[in-house]
Write a structure and sequence with these properties.
The chain is α/β, with parallel strands linked by helices. The protein is about 30% helix and about 25% strand.
């Protein structure tokens, strides 16, 4: 009996770490291509990803950016930004997974809510997106980490099921060949999956998805933790196998995708006692864990693409020493961390050519359209400006004699300034300042006179 148990244990250990030369997980990366990135950085990112050998990219659309104000009214800049990311990905021969989330206030009922009141509104938007990009996007992921309050107001498997049931036919009608992916769950939350099945989710997706981040953000991919019922915990990398078990128990043999996984390289330390649940690892350990993760994934034929989060450190934080900012395989300036070589090895890439140097980024521009120079009035004053920036305008600020009186973050930029009529008679300089997402600024001004 002891010998039999020992043999069974050895078989279990060997199968846990088994790899296969016949198959390896498809290599994908989560990118910032649709996060307001400049055109120059989009170009450089695509070149670096192609050089690394990845075959998939995960892009994202924040619904509230595209359909901001009213249903059917679409933001031209954001659409062009997404269009360009998809065009670059297609030209590079990359498969595209598009994740769509985050409802606008008109659909959610409040700027404090992230989820739509009516799933049909989301389905209508998905129909628009899938029709626009028919044949150019290979898969759609319906929402992101809907089992967390960060991405879904009051998480509910039943509510999410209703959203997926509405979105699935909308996508399939627009693009029958596209794969519809269950929104990637934060960790391998098999309890949420089981609740979704109980709510009737079966038949409303083509592939399951999870984000198997590890305990404290620092656990090794082959580190197994078990709960009281003997199941692998949801915060173990291999917890995705429990999700698979839950699916098979319900006779659903669909593929399972890993739409995010990774380790950050901040110096943060996990300290559950103080409420700090996310730590970082060294750059060399990030590389080792990435390689080991792909090796483990190769043992399971039911897995689809596995996307490392993310390709680049958050560009707007310039390598800040925080967990969220340092998940990248490359730093904000595109210099490579050791993990990039781990990804390249997992993808079987044979080239190590460095990415091309960045193209020069144009400074933002701004034009103060009102008031015009020489305006004279004793009444109120209309302040208005147009602005543009490679990568998007972060904000436009209006100032009078150097004192800021208003900040606008969305076009059209302008307002009626009633307080001008209360100023003392005399001459004033009205200034508009446009800031891009990297902090660069452009200004335009006009001299106006307050009449007695």
């Amino acid at each position: 009996m002891r010998r039999s148990l020992l043999c069974l244990a050895l078989v279990s250990i060997l199968s846990l770490g088994a790899t296969t030369s016949a198959r390896s997980a498809e290599v994908g990366v989560v990118t910032d291509l649709t996060w307001g990135t400049s055109n120059a950085d989009q170009d450089r990112t695509i070149s670096a990803i192609r050089n690394a050998g990845a075959t998939w990219v995960r892009l994202s659309i924040q619904w509230k950016n595209i359909e901001q104000v009213l249903p059917g009214v679409y933001d031209v800049w954001w659409l062009a930004h997404v269009d360009r990311a998809i065009e670059l990905s297609n030209a590079a021969g990359l498969n595209v997974l598009m994740m769509v989330y985050d409802a606008p206030a008109w659909a959610s009922g409040s700027t404090q809510r992230s989820t739509p009141r009516n799933p049909a509104d989301y389905a209508s938007f998905m129909s628009f997106v899938a029709n626009r990009y028919r044949g150019r996007i290979q898969a759609y992921e319906i929402w992101n980490e809907q089992n967390t309050e960060r991405f879904w107001t009051s998480p509910s498997a039943e509510a999410y099921t209703r959203l997926l049931q509405a979105a699935y036919p909308a996508v399939k009608m627009a693009d029958p060949a596209a794969t519809v992916v269950f929104g990637g769950l934060s960790t391998s939350d098999y309890a949420f999956v089981e609740s979704a099945y109980a709510a009737g989710v079966r038949g409303s997706f083509d592939a399951m998805a999870v984000h198997p981040y590890t305990y404290c953000g620092t656990g090794a991919p082959d580190e197994l933790r078990r709960s009281g019922n003997g199941r692998i915990t949801r915060d173990s990398f291999l917890g995705y196998r429990e999700v698979r078990a839950s699916m098979l128990a319900r006779s659903d043999d669909k593929p399972l995708w890993i739409t995010e996984f990774g380790w950050n390289t901040s110096t943060a330390r996990c300290d559950p006692a103080s409420g700090s649940w996310q730590g970082g690892v060294s750059e060399s350990l990030q590389a080792s864990y990435t390689a080991r993760a792909y090796s483990l994934l190769a043992a399971n034929a039911y897995l689809g693409p596995a996307f490392v989060y993310n390709f680049r450190n958050n560009y707007w934080e310039f390598d800040a020493d925080t967990p969220e900012a340092r998940y990248g395989l490359v730093r904000s300036d595109f210099s490579a961390k050791p993990a990039l070589d781990a990804l390249r090895a997992a993808a079987g890439a044979t080239t190590t050519d460095p990415p091309p140097p960045p193209a020069p980024i144009e400074a933002p521009s701004v034009t103060l359209t009102s008031p015009t120079n020489g305006t004279a009035t004793n009444g109120s004053l209309t302040l208005a400006a147009t602005a543009s920036a490679d990568g998007g305008v972060a904000r436009v600020v209006f100032a009078v004699d150097g004192t800021v009186i208003r900040e606008e973050t969305e076009a059209p930029y302008g307002f009626r300034w009633m307080a001008f009529r209360h100023l003392s008679a005399g001459q004033y300089v009205i200034e508009a300042r446009a800031y891009d997402r990297a902090g660069r600024v452009a200004t335009d001004s006009a001299s106006v006179t307050r009449l007695p």
